[in-house]
Amino acid sequence: MRLALALEYDGRAFCGWQSQSSGCAVQDALERALQAVAGAPVSAVAAGRTDAGVHATAQVVHVDAPAERPATAWVRGVNASLPAPVAVLWAQPVDAAFHARFAATARHYSYLLLQRSARPALLAGRVGWYHRPLDAAAMDDACGVLRGTHDFSAFRAAECQARSPVKTLHRASVAADGPLLRFDFSADAFLHHMIRNLVGALVRIGAGKADAAWLARVLADRDRRQAPATFAPDGLYFTGADYDARFGLPPTRRDIAVPVA
Asked: What pLDDT sits at residue 242?
């Protein structure tokens, strides 16, 4: 029986989504908990492979369960075996054609950035940080350069395994909420470190060190060396993926609650 599940997790506790030999990944923790309920090994496939320190409000996963269990077992039973920083939100049987990664038509991320002179303590690990005020309007205007279909090689990690650097960015925006800045991105798919590299470029514009024309040149030149360093993972959240209505899933997107800065 194929199951779809949604998870939330605090990325600080893990070395990323993808399984590691040390067993430190979200995938490792989930598969151990699933095995405890199913009584046999279970493999999990996620919509998005988040990096170490990156959080999720609605990571969509599918598994092929080797045994039938009550629906509550795949939520409460699995959660009883999961470490505190990760939890299953819902679980539902799905058609065998459903694939959490390949059936996703869009993926969504948000990045929260605290702009103030003192580094965060209460929000440490939950938001990114920049020590000076940033121009949110300039960054939001520059996002227009990024929207659409482009070759994002300039914002791609060297170890990225994607077959093509060409992605379609449906949404890119920046908005201020007091000292917090919120960056929102939606695309068909993302490259490794793409969002953190885009945030780094936009922060450079917000700090008055570059403008939208510079961003356009970096994008067009497709040279990673021209773009700023990869921004910290702390404020990045995977907020869900979109799927065809025929799969009959519960909501697969879940907005992040903006913390009080």
From this structure: 98
